[in-house]
Amino acid sequence: MNNILDSQHPSGPVTVKTLKITVDRNLCIGAGTCVAIAAKTFILDEEGKAIIIKSANEEEKQTIIDAAKACPVAAIIIEDENGKRIFPQ
Questions:
Q1: pTM
Q2: Is 65 inside any structural domain?
Q3: How far apart are CA 44 and CA 66, in angstroms?
C-alpha cells in the first residue's frame, strides 16, 4: 500500500495539519466508522485495523476529530500541536 502516510507507522503517530493522530491498534476493532466519516484520512488494513493515508492532509481537521469521536472504542487519539489531548479527554 503506497498511499499510507507513514509506512513505518501506518497507525501513527502522524501529524496532519496541526493534529497528531494515533490509532491504538490494540483497541481498534475495525468497525470502520472512521472510514465512513473521514474517508480521506482512514482506511482499514489487511488486519482490519485503521491506518492513516496520504490524502489525510485534504481532510478538514474537524472531520478527523469527528471520526475519532465516532469510534465505538475510542481507539483514535487526537492531540494538538502542543501535545494537548483533544480526544479522548
A1: 0.94
A2: yes
A3: 17
Q: Is residue 88 part of a domain?
A: no
**Using an 8 Å Cβ cutoff, are 20 and 13 in contact?**
yes
Residue 19 cell numbers, joined = 493534529
pLDDT at 1: 56
Q: Give tens-digit pLDDT for 44-80.
A: 999 999 999 999 999 999 999 999 999 999 999 999 9
Domain with 38 in it:
14-82
User: What are the strands of the beta sheet with 14-16, ordered from one edge?
Assistant: 14-16, 19-23, 76-79, 85-87
Number of independent structural domains in the chain: 1
Residue 31 lies in a domain: yes
Q: Is 89 exposed, middle or buried (0-12, 13-18, 19+ CB in 10 A)?
A: exposed
